[in-house]
Amino acid sequence: MGGARVDHVVQAVAAERAPDELKDIQELLTRDADEVTRAFAHRQKVSPLGFGTGAVAVLVTPLVWMVLQQFAQELTAASARTLTQRAHAWLQRLLRRTPPAVTVLPQLDGEQLDRLHRIVKERARETGMGEQEADRLASCVISHIVRNQ
Question: Is 115 helix (H, G, I), strand (E, B) or coil?
Fold first, then answer.
């Protein structure tokens, strides 16, 4: 059985933690997952921050999308058991090809959920989010994943 859909988790988290971002991402999230990942990756290279009502604000949507993508890619790489799968992953890295975007997270166990919580919180803190807000964001992400897996 599959886990939570990445776009559903991102949309639910944005609705709860950053509702002002929803109108900007609604159309984007209807696109192909690879296209969304490229758009958010480009946005992160330019700046992970947005400008709101006179203050700098962390953009929650790209942060959550990219963390979930990277986390799922790491899990996939770690679970590659066959020699063929490992050789294919090595070749992709060698050719610097980006692996396809993940649309559905694998089922996550408690240890993986704890690790993901820490990663989301750390990334949020790195982009300037306060400690408590970063913890609430990470908890929100985990909550939506658990509800949908």
Answer: helix
Q: Which residues contact 52 (CB under 8 A, 6 or more apart)?
A: 20
- pLDDT tens, 53-72? 333 346 898 999 999 999 98
Estimate to the nearest angstrom the gap between the alpha carbon of 137 and the chain centroid: 12
Residue 57: strand pairing partners: 50
For residue 130, count CB atoms less than 10 angstroms from its CB and return exposed for 0-12, middle for 13-18, buried for 19 or more.
exposed
The closest of 67, 5, 16 to 40, measured between CA atoms, is 67
Q: Give pTM, 2 decimals.
A: 0.78
Spatial distance between the Cα atoms of 17 and 147, rounded to a whole number of angstroms: 17
Domain boundaries, the chain: 6-148
Sequence-distant (≥ 6) Cβ neighbours of residue 53 within 8 angstroms: none
Per-residue pLDDT tens over the stretch 80-89: 556 666 676 6
